[in-house]
Amino acid sequence: MATRVYRQNARAAAAEATRDRIVDAAFELFLARWYDEVSLRDVASTAGVALQTVVNHFGTKDAVFLAAVERYSESIDELRDTVKPDDVPHAAAVLAADYERHGDANIRALFVEHRFPLLAEGLDQGRRSHRDWVAKTFPGALAGSRGAARTRRLMALCAVTDVTTWKYLRRDHGLSQSRTAAVLHEMIEALYPERRS
């Protein structure tokens, strides 16, 4: 009986390790390529498993993509959760580092979200998560504002910390990562009423 339980546990652990390898491969592929350029065959090849193994674990490209999005969200949360409220310099540096890793994939996704409902859904979730993080991270910028005024201030903070702002600074104008972080810092600080000169 103990031998059978051990074998079942070993099989379950091996299956979980294979699943993780597939998700890791999908995550890296979706970061590096356009959504429609990634196939299940690519995921299988990158993960070092048979195509049928990917199909057995996930069934469809959409299911693999959702698992990769979950992994992506976890990696962003880990990084962003290191920021203490109103620590603007650290928040700007974390955003620049986050976008350095994930920004280009986000920008590619924005260009094609209208063609892929699942992709649009993932981006909408990302927008909600970003808004929640901004509200939690910059409470001092929102302090004292209510109703429509608070909503406008929150939207302004979301805009200056958005991936498209990073793209404008880093990709369109070629600023370094550190200079991008410095500009983000300046823009966020400008939205703190008591910090304006």
- The coarse silhouette is elongated
> How many individual β-strands?
0
How many domains, in number, for the residues? 2
Average pLDDT reading:
91
The helix-strand sequence is HHHHHHHHHH
Mind describing the biggest β-sheet?
A: none
Low-confidence stretches: none
Tally of alpha and pi helices: 10
What is the distance, rounded to the nearest whole angstrom, between the alpha carbons of the first and last residues?
Answer: 74 Å
Helix/strand structural class: mainly alpha
| Portion of residues within helices | over 70%
List the topology elements:
Layout: H1 2-32, H2 40-47, H3 51-58, H4 61-80, H5 88-112, H6 117-137, H7 139-142, H8 147-160, H9 163-172, H10 177-189
Helix pairs in contact: 1-2, 1-4, 2-3, 4-6, 5-6, 5-9, 5-10, 6-8
Give structural notes.
The structure is a single chain. With 197 residues, this protein is mainly α. It folds into two domains: 1-60, Arc Repressor Mutant, subunit A (Orthogonal Bundle); 82-197, no CATH class. Helices cover 78% and strands 0% of the residues.
